[in-house]
């Protein structure tokens, strides 16, 4: 069986601080130069955050740098964007990192109301969408697959279901495409990555996405 997996997605990642004051403190900590007096650590309270798994590696690097420079202890849990927003809104985390904003008007489980307190939201990182695939042509592992945006959208909406589909073959004349089914693999949880990916399909390939959603 051949798997096609959805990787994490493009978009501005947003850092949400419990208040404007806390946001300034964290931003300053991220930018504080090395050499801050060690005594400063005695006045700092540990802070905790959660959210995006996409941004987790970056947050971990910043966390270590901030601790090294200032003595500020910070923990971060990659529970997903919506999980982080929910924990932040309930007051169990000091900050959250998310690919999207609070949305109380979304359908059902996708709705997340804004917290009942003031907060600041800052863009901290950006990334690109990529599609992972696992494909062989005979005994050869394919490492030069080319897919247009239209073809990708049709694969993930079930219009194109086989690797030897004429559209896929036409975009890859250098490959003898195998007569095999494509098995799209996506995350099952409420993922900011999936949200950004489907947002791209709905705006850039509106007709394909609309037909899929009917």
UniProtKB/TrEMBL annotation:
UniProt domain PBP: residue ranges: 43-204
Pfam family, one: PBP_like_2
The family this protein is said to belong to: Belongs to the PstS family.
Protein name in the entry: Periplasmic binding family protein
Phylogenetic classification of the source organism: Bacteria, Bacillati, Actinomycetota, Actinomycetes, Micrococcales
